[in-house]
Amino acid sequence: MKNYTRNIVLQPNEMPDKWYNIAADLGGKMLPPLHPGTLKPLDGASMSVLFPDELIRQEMSGERFISIPDEVRDLYAMFRPSPLYRAVNLEKMLGTPAKIYYKYEGVSPSGSHKTNTAIAQAYYNKIEGVKKIATETGAGQWGSALSFACNHFGIDLQVFMVKVSYEQKPYRKMLMNLWNGKVEASPSNTTQAGRNILAQHPDSPGSLGIAISEAIELAVSDPATKYSLGSVLNHVLLHQTIIGLEAEKQFEKAGDYPDVVIGCFGGGSNFAGISFPFVRHNLDGKTKTRFIAVEPTSCPKLTKGSFRYDFGDVAGMTPLLPMHTLGHDFIPPGIHAGGLRYHGAAPLVSALVNEGIVEAQAIDQLECFEAGLKFAQAEGILPAPETAHAIAATIREALKAKAENSPRTILFNLSGHGYFDMYAYQLYLDNKLTNFIFDDKMLEGIEGKTHPVELAFR
Ligand SMILES: *Cc1c(COP(=O)(O)O)cnc(C)c1O
How are beta strands 181-186 and 306-311 bridged, if at all? Predict the structure, then answer.
């Protein structure tokens, strides 16, 4: 055995007992969400149809560290602290002088990082007496994480699952059903938002934006039902920081520190989770770590979108959020990384992109699948197609280190495993997957659909 550490273990009692709220360190750089009717900054009261009070408090909090309730930590302890591995075999395969570490979130019951916030959100709903939750899911990862958590806390769950994923990933739906989640393919004819889309586009593959509209409509129309979102919002990103806080401790044990931190990017939650605790030290001026958010070229909100006020959903039912967006009615092509098919981006990450602290990269579908397969062959774990975007960027960075003959320490987040994504990998192996060329014409008219950020200062 070589005497380097492949698996940096944290003991159960070393699990962090607080989440890190980066809003405390961004101060004046954050713009408020706006009420879509009045175009004035949103107050907590108008969010209470959708969310329990404690989540609204966290959404608006300026407190740097927020305690993780014991009941949440107890459930986290089923799979946390999660492992930090050194990808020694991948390093060898690439012949790189770089050190590659990855944090493995596929150990959670539903197989991704989403469980970190699902447990917290279901818990706060339960203690405030909520009986039913409505939500959306893209690839099915969020729906299954929340089904697991709601089932544990005795809450009914209605999931609107993006139609293309519903058809491509029947076993994800089945997993939700096994945890007592009810699932509708979206657009569905059970909501006005769904019926409107179907009237115009009967063959719509659906999108996260449409599914969010359907779930919100259900929550707003039924006083007993709240709504839950799996990404984008501040409180969701807050819950995910347990990933990076653990990684920080694990790096301390390994006697190392990342020069580059990489995460794939859908709405921003797993990227925020792995990166924010390290971003904090850059904000303090103590480190100069690089942070790379990786999105699909077919849905390039960070690299090609505009920083504007826009809705989080297609029907325009959410507050207006200051974010990088492709326009709320943008329907991304049906790529096999369903969790990345979202038109917008977390306001917290958008602000860090504007500050030049976070870099964004867009990578094509085929390069990602190739990277996912390489990783599986080297390290044994099959990554989710979403995660494969982070791996493709990691491989690019490791090969750059080789070309420049300059070592560096890379950390990426293995946000979830791909064992429910066999159909997609089968298509890849059969040469049936293609890249999508993003047509810049799709961005025309975005000004008319969104609002300039100056609105916040009026
Ligand atoms: C949902 C999902 C993503 C994308 O969502 P973020 O909020 O950007 O993290 C990435 N990876 C996996 C495995 C997912 O399930």
Answer: unpaired
